[in-house]
């Protein structure tokens, strides 16, 4: 999901490791990119400092204090090639943040970032959870299995592996304080369905090479999760719930007959380079321009970057996998999705799902649905643009939650 965003969403890992009168406590600021903003929070105490990026679920990262005087400070984060330099002015720290040629103003003020996320469940849960790990080659994936609240340990229950969108995300698919996978897992557990959600390789508690990984590698990670669930011997039907890139992975595994059912949430139905063309058209319109960047120009630009994930993404066409899906499939999108536009992707999916001689889907359980006024995260929204995500309190539409649980329960 994060790689599909047309805004800059790089994690700027920065911690001010300083002491001094008036500095102790919590400070917050925002990096403003014009089309989006990224919140930064610092916690200062006598032992040093930690930093949070609450919009991206990144917490407690340290950096080096390069310089500090009575009124100035400079901090370097070598791993991210990032630097912050600022001057203490009254109750503010005023400065600039730079990373790999990008320089932005950053002003810190006292206090923490608090956002209302009423759907996020909190412990104690009325169901059992289990911390697990499984392997795909050199990658070790750490995750959580959530069991149904009425499970007695004997009944073979349905279970779904949850696969996040693009970009490295934790098992809750956390973004802007929203935890959609935690919300979905909680809802399903209360409605008789188990789930396995896991941290992407090199995110959270998982390890593995993410720099050179492509969607195919992430698909194999998901397949390892499915194999792990089968080895547990506790479950009946085993499926996949994938969001965005995860929805694409759901198509891959469905075509390979590796799952008993699949749920695709905003999964692309056209080739990746076409997705990027549409996203660029949307970005230009937001800036007041008509027109688009030619597809070939986008492809040439990406090929020059040496990014394995992007190169795979622009070349992969999901149509062939969609044509091979014969297992029950629930395919959902929002009418205001500006990252994977329903009006382009859904017709391609519908046209390529296999049908019988009567023109009906091969699986009678297959359902394709577009929700009015929902965005890429399946939130009720105004414009559907990515900059709305963090300001919307709703994490995911209750209608979508109900439809997923009801559909799986009927299989």
What is the gist of this entry?
The chain is α/β, with parallel strands linked by helices and 411 residues long. The chain is 24% helix and 28% strand.
What would the keywords be for this entry?
single chain; about 400 residues; alpha/beta; Rossmann fold; 2 domains; nine-stranded antiparallel β-sheet; eight-stranded mixed β-sheet; 17 strands
Can you walk me through this structure?
It is built from nine helices and 17 strands. With 411 residues, the chain is α/β, with parallel strands linked by helices. It has two domains: 2-110, Lipocalin; 129-270 and 317-410, Rossmann fold. The strands form two sheets. A nine-stranded antiparallel sheet has the order 4-3-2-1-9-8-7-6-5, with no helix packed on it. Strands 10-11-13-12-14-15-16-17 form an eight-stranded mixed sheet, with helices on both faces. α2 crosses α3 (245-255). The protein is globular. Residues 4-21 have low confidence and may be disordered.
């Amino acid at each position: 999901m994060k790689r599909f965003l047309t805004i800059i969403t790089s994690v700027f890992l920065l911690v001010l490791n300083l002491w001094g009168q008036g500095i102790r406590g919590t400070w917050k600021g925002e990096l403003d990119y014009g089309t989006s903003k990224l919140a930064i929070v610092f916690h200062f105490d006598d032992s040093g400092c930690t930093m949070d990026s609450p919009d991206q679920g990144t917490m407690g990262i340290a950096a080096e204090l390069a310089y500090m005087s009575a009124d100035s400070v400079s901090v370097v984060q070598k791993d991210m090639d990032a630097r912050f330099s600022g001057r203490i002015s009254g109750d503010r720290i005023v400065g600039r943040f730079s990373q790999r040629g990008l320089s932005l103003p950053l002003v810190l003020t006292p206090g923490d970032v608090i956002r209302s996320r009423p759907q996020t469940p909190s412990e104690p849960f009325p169901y059992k959870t289990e911390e697990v790990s499984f392997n795909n080659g050199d990658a070790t994936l750490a995750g959580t299995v959530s069991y149904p609240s009425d499970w007695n340990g004997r009944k073979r229950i349905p279970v779904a592996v949850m696969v996040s969108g693009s970009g490295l995300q934790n098992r809750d698919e956390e973004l802007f304080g929203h935890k959609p996978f935690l919300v979905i897992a909680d809802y399903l557990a209360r409605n008789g369905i188990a789930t396995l959600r896991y941290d992407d390789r090199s995110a959270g508690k998982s390890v593995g090479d993410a720099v050179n990984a492509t969607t195919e590698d992430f698909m194999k990670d998901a397949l390892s999760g499915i194999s792990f669930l089968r080895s547990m011997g506790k479950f009946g039907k085993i499926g996949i719930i994938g969001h965005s890139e995860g929805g694409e992975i759901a198509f891959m595994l469905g075509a390979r007959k590796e799952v008993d059912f699949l749920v695709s949430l905003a999964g692309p139905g056209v080739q990746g380079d076409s997705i990027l063309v549409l996203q660029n058209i949307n970005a230009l319109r937001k800036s007041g321009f008509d027109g688009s960047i030619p597809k070939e120009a986008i492809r040439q630009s990406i090929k020059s970057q040496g990014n394995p994930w992007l190169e795979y993404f622009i070349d992969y066409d999901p149509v062939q996998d969609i044509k091979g899906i014969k297992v029950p499939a629930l395919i959902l999108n929002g009418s205001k999705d500006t990252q994977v536009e329903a009006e382009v992707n859904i017709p391609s999916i519908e046209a390529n799902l296999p049908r019988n001689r009567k023109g009906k889907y091969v699986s009678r359980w297959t359902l394709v649905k577009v929700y009015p006024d929902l965005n890429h995260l399946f939130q009720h929204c105004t414009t559907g643009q990515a900059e709305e995500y963090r300001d919307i309190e709703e994490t995911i539409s209750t209608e979508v939650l109900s439809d997923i649980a009801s559909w799986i329960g009927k299989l």
